[in-house]
Specification:
The chain is of the alpha+beta class and 109 residues long. It has a domain of 61 residues. A two-stranded parallel ribbon has the order 1-2. The longest helix has 10 residues. The radius of gyration is 19 Å and the shape is elongated.
Length: 109
C-alpha cells in the first residue's frame, strides 16, 4: 500500500509462513528496554528463547534515548537529588507485580 500523504508510513502485509517447525520455551515480543533483558535472563536461566522484534533495530521506544536509558539504580543524578536507589530496587520495580493497585501501577511508581 502506498500513501499520497507525505510523512505517512506505508503498511505492507507479510504472509504468515505456511509451516512452522520451531519449538521454544519462551517467546519474548519486542527487543526493547524490557524485552531484551527478559530474553537474556530467560536464556541465562537455561530456557530456549525466541525474541521477536518488528523493527530493523533493537531498542523499542527506548531507542529514542540514543541507547542511554537511565533506568535508575543509583545514578549520579539520583544521588544529587537525594534519591536512594540501587540495581536491586530497579530489578524489583520491573519484576515484582505483586504490589500493583487496581490501576495497574504500584504506589511507588
Amino acid at each position: 500500500m502506498t500513501s499520497d500523504h507525505p510523512g505517512t508510513v506505508a503498511v505492507v502485509a507479510v504472509p504468515s509462513p505456511a509451516a512452522w517447525h520451531r519449538e521454544t520455551d519462551i517467546v519474548v515480543i519486542g527487543a526493547g528496554a524490557a524485552g531484551m533483558p527478559a530474553a537474556i535472563c530467560a536464556r541465562e536461566a537455561g530456557a530456549s528463547v525466541f525474541l521477536l522484534e518488528a523493527e530493523a533495530d533493537i531498542g523499542g521506544h527506548a531507542i529514542t534515548s540514543g541507547g542511554n536509558v537511565p533506568l535508575g539504580g543509583g545514578t549520579s543524578a539520583q544521588t544529587a537529588a537525594g534519591i536512594e536507589d540501587s540495581p536491586d530496587l530497579v530489578f524489583l520495580d520491573n519484576t515484582d507485580w505483586s504490589v500493583v493497585q487496581p490501576n495497574g501501577f504500584p504506589d511507588y511508581r
